[in-house]
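Note to self: the last two entries modelled the partners one at a time, which told us nothing about the interface. This time every component goes in together.
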Amino acid sequence: MACVFANRLLSSILLAGMPYFAHAQTPPPIIDMHVHAEPVALAGPSVFCAPYEVMPVANSGAEAPAAVMEWMTKPDCENLVTMPADDAEQTLQLLAIMERRNVISVVGGDAGLIAEWTARAPGRWLKGIPSSMDVRKPEVIAELRRRHAAGELDVIAEVATQYEGVAPDDPSLEPLWALAEELDVPVGIHVGTGPPGAPYFAFPQYRGRLHSPLAMEEVVMRHPKLRVWLMHAGWPMLDDLLVTLYTHPQIHVDIGAIAVGFPKPSFYRYLQAIVDAGFIDRVMFGSDMFFAPEMQERAIQVVEEAPFLDEAHKRAIFYDNAARFLRFDEDRIQSHHQGQK
Ligand SMILES: [Zn+2]
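The predicted structure of the combined assembly is written out below.
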């Protein structure tokens, strides 16, 4: 109890930004496998819920678009997050959280923002790709090859073809899997949740059945050297996920969006079932931060507060699993723990 209190006190001092403590104490490192660099100008509503407490409701498909828009633009919850006013504020907020929490992030998205973030906080980034990149196109495959040769591609993530109604084992993705295997670059693919009611407002090809991780099976059988993780952990297809993890020991997941965006009891049930089934070492932290850096802070807190995780579990999720999966060497791991990048 005393220890809990002391930790609370220390973290509130750190949150208050007292310079003496901030320098004296380097928190253990966190790898966020799931960050998007998106200009705030593209954000729709200026507030959203983290987490959402209820989902949209409509009486017919014809009414669904309005219901989803209402849900999105008039969020109703206790935990509202306000978007930063502009990109300068987004940058300041994000870098402050990453510094305070000792975070290294996979990032993909707007090239200008990424250039700014990497210049201001060098060493804190693993370069991915914008989720808008259509990895089915031959010219995009060529571009990925070029970026890799130039040292500008650490991971191929987020592959978001699920939004186009394309399953991971669709033949159009075969060149991507072959390239990733050849270059030995990990791939993060969106398998799991998009926004609720997705086909009714923005993604007409989106289908719930594409949440199933089982669509990865033939891909990993065809590409034995492939390193791949499921972004959003195939939520909520728990049985499909467990049997996929059980059958294919190389498949990993991140908890982007589902940790921060969904009702806490639901996320905790999902994560606990994964851990209870023996797959703790395949779960990696992810926030799915876009526009609002507070998403990263809140996602970290949700994991920290999970009553069924012990300290070793938390370190595995926050850092150790990703460090192993990404093949960080001892020197790099050491320097992350010392707060150097
Ligand atoms: Zn995603």
